[in-house]
Amino acid sequence: KMAAATAAGGAGAAAALWSEVNRCGQNGDFARALKSVNKILQISKDDVTALQCKVVCLIQNGNFKEALGVINTHTKVLTSDVIAFEKAYCEYRLNRIENALKTIQSASQQTDKLKELYGQVLYRLERYDDCLAAYRDLIRNSQDEYEEERKTNLSAVVAAQSTWEKVMPEDLGLREATYELCYNSACALIGQGKLNEAMKKLRKAEELCRQSLSEDSDVTEEDIEAELAIIHGQMAYIMQLQGRTEDALQLYNQIIKLKPTDVGLLAVIANNIITINKDQNVFDSKKKVKLTNAEGVEHKLSKKQLQAIEFNKALLAMYTNQADQCRKLSASLQSQSPEHLLPVLIQAAQLCREKQHAKAVGLLQDFADQHPASAAEIKLTMAQLKIAQGSVTKACMILRSIEELQHKPGMVSALVTMYSHEEDIDSAIEVFTQAIQWYQQFQASRTRGAKPKSPVHLSLIREAANFKLKHGRKKEAISDLEELWKQNPKDVHTLAQLISAYSLVDPEKAKVLSKHLPSSDTMSLKVDVDALENSHGATYVRKKAGKLTGDNQQKEQGQGDVKKKKKKKKGKLPKNYDPKVTPDPERWLPMRERSYYRGRKKGKKKDQVGKGTQGSTTAGSSELDASRTASSPPTSPRPGSAAAVSATSNVIPPRHQKPAGAPATKKKQQQKKKKGAKGGW
């Protein structure tokens, strides 16, 4: 009787506890419901319903790890069929995405809840094609109040495909009635490069967001700005892509000041600011890097976003002269993505900053040998390094080894320019020849019979011909010009070039070809001479004739087309011209080239010229000069000479005269000053 009474009491207590659990669940008080469930489990520890309720209460309270522990502890009772969704959801929230996928796939029955979670898991795994199919199936086979959310998720998948996989998004026919749908549509447009259209979508999304949130009286302006932060961040990104870096930077900083709780948004904005700063404002970039290291960032961003952030960290380390940190980060990136090109380029750039150019070229060569798919880009970088070292010929050899780019007009132009700089005309012509031959072989493989050559092919032939003519290779240019003329016999310019080339090699052939030139009548151009002379770029403008009145008008009419003769002005004759004397026939030659030129006369005072300053004289020169005696008359000084200062004396003026012994006195004074300076003055 005692045992029966105890069981009856326990059953009554359990019923009361279940009522409490039901009431708390309806009120959303899961913490209190959890206490009642624990009491039930004390009465019956293997109660399946109680264990399920405990897991749900823990999930609602955000205790995902504890909920997963309960599931794993009671695997015999809580089988995969019973609690598959709750287990997969806990694993999803704990960022154990692969485990969540296995749990969903192992479930015997795929419920609508599992399908919804399956779509989320596929999105996090970046399996966008499978995710798109899953959401389409959900939208097609379900009708409830969550249809709008499913369409939003579907548009997010399309936007991700456009952004990360460069897939042309298909028109889903979704009505963009919410700001989330407008935002996702804008992201898809950004992936296609339609920046202006994307900006319009974002402005519409901003307007819809304000309207939607303003209807709720509990939402403040700060809450609205926080919700708009992601839209504004995408606007700033478009500005940055358009080159409006100042506007983008201002908007980025405004978002950071709001201190949004989304660590993923902050990390992306900080990374974009670092890309704007580049090697400038390094202190600000160092502060922004901390935002990219926040906890949980790796679960908020895609793999490509995280990879871009790591690349920028390595570049920032290089710009801040942290060589070891740069090498460490780039090596880590290379180990994660061995086929990726950027880590190797960063390492090579760091070696170049350390003046180890040969080592950088060797590193790039090794990578090109191991990854032939990226060899073209690597070799372009190697050629750039060789040019920086001044090895232009070696750079040309590297460029010519890139087979898939040899025929490209840009590559041909670069090689010809470089060879011309090195004055290697033969190699430049060889580059033209190889490119023309490639196009000939390509056309022969694509068509049958004689077909007109492509515009690129003809352009290369013309450039080759012009190059050969410029460097005097007339015979080699003739074959190219004949080929061009054959393709277009009406091309007068090519025919003129061909005749010019033949005139130096085979004049008879040039005469024969000249018969194909059009007559002067057919080549006459209808040109409005007055309009041409009065145009803005005309160097000569004819003056407009003034109005003629009275006698002048009659005189003009009478003269008709008779041209007035211009009177020639008489040339001016020299003042000392004598018509009786025959002019000097050599007067137009310089004096030194005339037959009667005998050189300049030697001066009598040549011995007085010294090596001192202007106006100085050698000691005793005045005593030895007979012209300076009192008996000799004063010589007349030449105009402009120093002696012209005084008409009655030949003495050099005091301001130019250096007294005897002055240099020695000055030297002694300088020595005295130096001695005094040693005393501390």
UniProtKB/TrEMBL annotation:
Instruction: Enumerate the Gene3D superfamilies for this protein.
Output: Tetratricopeptide repeat domain
Q: Which UniProt keywords apply?
A: Acetylation, Coiled coil, Cytoplasm, Endoplasmic reticulum, Isopeptide bond, Phosphoprotein, Repeat, Ribonucleoprotein, Signal recognition particle, TPR repeat, Ubl conjugation
Q: Name one GO molecular function term.
A: 7S RNA binding
Name where it mostly resides: cytoplasm
Compartmental location = Cytoplasm; Endoplasmic reticulum
A GO biological process of this protein is: SRP-dependent cotranslational protein targeting to membrane
Where is region (Disordered) located?
Answer: 542-681
Positions with biased composition (Basic and acidic residues): 575-596
Q: Where are the TPR repeats?
A: 229-262
The segment(s) forming the Signal recognition particle SRP72 subunit RNA-binding domain are: 543-599
Q: What does this protein do?
A: Component of the signal recognition particle (SRP) complex, a ribonucleoprotein complex that mediates the cotranslational targeting of secretory and membrane proteins to the endoplasmic reticulum (ER). The SRP complex interacts with the signal sequence in nascent secretory and membrane proteins and directs them to the membrane of the ER. The SRP complex targets the ribosome-nascent chain complex to the SRP receptor (SR), which is anchored in the ER, where SR compaction and GTPase rearrangement drive cotranslational protein translocation into the ER.
The record's similarity note reads: Belongs to the SRP72 family.
Q: What is the name of the protein in this document?
A: Signal recognition particle subunit SRP72
- What organism does the record attribute this protein to? Eudyptes chrysocome (Western rockhopper penguin)
